[in-house]
Every structure is written in structure tokens, then in C-alpha cells.
Amino acid sequence: MRYYLFLLLLSSFNSVGAIDDYNLVLSSGQSLSIGHTSQDMNPIIFRDEVNPNKVFLFNGVRTTAPRFDQSLVESDVRFLEPLKDLTRQTHAYSMFEMLEYLYSLENKPFPKFVYAPHGRGGQKISKLEYGTEPFENGLTMLRAGERLAFESGENFNVPFITWIHGESNANSNLQEYKQKLSKLYNAYKNKVQTTSSKTRNPILFMDQTGVSYGHDIAISSWEFANDNETVSLVMPKYFLNRNYFNRSDERTHLNAKGYILQGEYFAKAIFTTFELNKKWKPLQPEFLRIENNKAFVTLHVPEGDLVIDTQTLPEAPGYGLKYISPSNIEYIPQVSIQGNSLVLEFNTTLEVGGKIDSGFTLDDRQNTANQKTPVTNIRDTSEFISFVDQQPLHNWLVQFSIEITPQTPGMSAAINTSGYNIWDGGDIVVDIPEPYSIIGGNYNNRNLNYALYRVSFDAEIKSGIPILNIGDSIIPITKEGRNSFVAIICEPNQDMVSVVSTQTTFTGAMQSISLKPILSETNFDHNSIDELGDNIWPSNVTVENYEADKFSITGDYFIKTKLRYPIYLLEYKVEIDEGSAYINIGDFHKKINNSGIFHTRVPICKPEYGRLRFSTGKTGFSGKINNIEIKPI
């Protein structure tokens, strides 16, 4: 007799997005989405159907998805049969079994599901996107599902999509990967919206890769989920790759137990989202504050408390956490827990341009098939029990990387508020070269990632006027001796200012809103009122006791005001009853989901130019420029 324990965090209530009717579940990705494993070593565990009256598969489709070169035709989707495939384990079995159990705990009827797998092993996202054979297979099942629902006199619904992918794109341009994933997700939503589906924007559930070569792509997945309100990152997967691997010499794929656990984690996230009406988020950083050599990382803890666990996984230096300096030197911290926060203490001062990174401090490749595999020792104390081994499904800390910027709380109080010097061309000594010739530096030798730079150097001018080119700024140098000034790299081109309700709608109040430009001369102390411009938020606009449709403007209208500066100081007081909202300032978006008094620095634009050089004026130049420092503020 099995005993299952599920700790509900919230009292359940009916959600506008609740799963009901006749539900098609689109599922795509690569080999981990189809259950690839060594079948002789890892035989299937679930040999019986998962509730044959409620969970179905199309007659010509395997639970592991169509064959590698199979393009589905009408005869493959003519009727439904119970979800069952004796060839190998997939996450689908345990996902649906766990979902049914959770519905029973709430005394709710378990809906009907039609599983529509169409992933393909070993494929980059470009081989799974709109127009490819796997995507078309998904569309074939989408149309067939709607037809069968109509024929049975039931409503049709596509509540969510599962996406398990990333290994094949581990070495791709990560920004391009996120763009492709956004395009793919939009293609799914557009196709769903051509049907009669009750859900117009199905939620995308995805996870992080847990393999040695996948740190960057794992971070990309985490960022994508945080950037999209209707995308949920279910979990990191390194603990499955560590403990439930396919073979001792192959850690990318999972064994049967690993796939069962993968499916149960997905079920937990799906149920929380739809039936508890709370977007699922994994154990992940929510807020970073710096104090000299300490980083305070506040985490979203899904269930229970925050703990350090060196028994389930091997102990990693810094429990998997590190600081990467702007000069690419790695530092391992002393780590302690304060409530829901990690306190990381380093033996160096933390600088703008550095990163707090999670996942890759342990190199025990002699134990992991000669692959340096990610690991952290940080988890919560979830009491949600697995079917397969009656052990808790703890939520482990995601792999992440957070850059320390001038806007990171605490950096304004640091001794040095500038980042790492980006000038590496040395001193410049010139004796009247040709007009406008380059005397130091060159084009496109730097990625200028900040809006403001502190420039300083000593100048000895014998004749002529040298010119500093930094980004799109052209600055003549006419002053002898010490020069020190702030260079503005770009100007914002959007003047939109508004507050917008999110998917869950927003009720409450935003008061005392202040949005003031930080002028070039500021020392970045937010209390230095004299160094801030005038408040550009109209004093008569307060968001109060407002209940709106999803993504509607709660500030009544877009405020048209020219954003003339690259950085603004935003201050506001919030009292939230429920839901959350976004404040949009130019091309900057900040989520409002906590009550209290807040202030944050808002960057309006990001430079695109890489130009960094000194050149002569039209009359040439003779003299010397030395002690050059150009640091992002």
C-alpha cells in the first residue's frame, strides 16, 4: 500500500485557467523529451495504462513521439487509444499519474488528456521549429484533437505545452536561441488560436539541461522563463543527471527512474499553476544585494525552507556558487543561510561587471564519465512525495548567472562605483600625424554594455586637438592635464511610461510614484536630490484599487514624456492585495509583486556600438595622453 504526502501551500480555488474539457498536450524537444535510454539496462517501470478512461494517445503515434522520419498522416490520428508504450519509459506516464493523484487530493474530477508528443532526439531547435516535420506532426495532432472533440460533443482545449530541450544548442548563440524559442512558442500559440481551444495562450513548461556542456544554455532557459509571464521553468535537471543517469559512461540521458521523477516534477508545476492559480517558479534568485565583499541572494523558495545538502549530491566548493570578476578571476565564497537568502562572503571586493554564478565549481569528472557535471548543494524542504521511491521531490537551486551592474542594490555605496577599466591600448605619444588618423585604439574592439562610462586621462597638448570616440559619442580634448568626465553612449528612443496588469490581474495600490533622471554628474547616491532631475511621473496619476483584464494598462494611459537620460531613479510605494503588475519605462520592464517601499535604477537603453579610439583632429596632433582609464559606471 502506497503512502503519499502532498503539502499544499495555498488553499485551492477555481482558476480562470483551470484545466477542463478535452485537453490536448503538445510535447516537444529532443531525446530527453522522448525517454531515450539504454532499454536493456533501464527497462520500463510503468507497464500498465495511465487511467485508460482519461489519458489517451493517437492510434498511430508512439508515447515516445513519431519515428525519426515519420510524417503523420490521417490514418495515424483517426482515433484514440489509452496511453501505453511498452518500448521505453517517458516522463508522460508519471506526469499524468501524478496529476490524477493531485486532482483526487482536491476532490476534483480528473480531466481528459490527449498526449501529442512530437519531439525528435539529437535535433537543434532549428530542426523543430515552425515548418519542420516534427512541428507539422504536432499540428496534425492539434487538428485531429479538435475534430475528435467536436465529434464526441465535448469542448476542446490546449492548456499547456511541454518543452524539454537544449543539449544540441549548448554551443549556439544564446541570444539567438532565446529568439528562436520565442518564435517557436509564438508559432504554437498562433496555431492554437486558430482552433476552438478555450485556452488562447497555452503555458509553456520547460526545464534546464543538466549536462557538462550545458551551463550557458541552462541559464538561457532560466532567463527565457523569467522574461515571459506564460512560461514556467519547472526545475534544473543536474540532480537527475547526477543520480539517475542512463549508463555509468553516459550522463546526458536518464534511466527509467529519472524519467519518472522528471514527469512528477512537471506534474507538480502544472498543478500548482492551474489549480492553485500560482505561476510555478523553481528555487531561483529573486534579488541580489552587494555589500563590499558580500553578496546577499534572496531566493524564491517554492516549498518549505532553504537548506544545504551535501548528502544527496557531493559537496561542491562554495556549494556550487562563485564570483567571476570582470577580469575573469573566480572566487569561491563562504556560504551561509539567512531565512530565504544565501549570504556569500568572498575574499575580494565585488565590482560592477562581475557575476554571481551557480552550478560549476565542482570538478569530479573522474566520477562522472570524464564530464564536469553541474551541481549545487542548495535545495528546499518540499514534502511532496514521489510515487517511484516515496522520497520527497525537493526543489534544487537553478543554474544561474547574475551580472553586477551599477543598478545592483549596494553598488552605489561601494568604494569604487566603476567597473573594470576597458582601455588596454596603453599611453599615446604622437608627433603630428595625418588629420583624422587613429592614434590609439580601433573600431569594434569592445562591447560597450553600459549607458554611462567614466573617462579619465592626463593630456599634454603641444598642437592640434585629439578626439575621443567612445560608442557614438565624439568628444574633442582641449584641456591640458587631468581630464575626467562621464561619456553617454546612447540616447533612449522610446517615451512610453505606464503600469500594466499581468496575467493574474492586479489589485492594490501604487502610490508616491517618482521617476527622476539621474544626471551625468551624480555620484549614484539616491539621496543626492540635487543631482536628480525633475519627477516626470504626473503627480495626479496613482494606480489604486484597480482590477483589470490581463495585460491591460492600469495607469489609465501611456504617459508620453521624453526620456532624455540613460538612467532614471524609480521610487514607489506598493500595497498589493493580489496579482502583480509591470511598470514599463521606455524599453525597461519591472515586475511589481511585493508590497513595500522600493527604489531602483532604470536603464533606458543599451549601447550597440563597439567604437573605442583616440584620433587626431583636422590639424593633426602632437603631444601625449597617458594614465587612460575608461570604466563603465
From TrEMBL:
InterPro entries referenced in this protein's UniProt entry, alphabetically: SGNH_hydro_sf (IPR036514)
Q: Which UniProt keywords apply?
A: Coiled coil, Signal
Q: Which Gene3D superfamilies match?
A: SGNH hydrolase (3.40.50.1110)
Q: Which residues form the signal peptide?
A: 1-18
* Nucleotide-binding among keywords: no
Q: Which domain of life is it from?
A: Bacteria
Entry annotated with the keyword Aminoacyl-tRNA synthetase: no
Q: What residue ranges carry the coiled-coil annotation?
A: 167-194
Q: What is this protein called?
A: Sialate O-acetylesterase domain-containing protein
Q: Which organism is it from?
A: Pseudoalteromonas undina
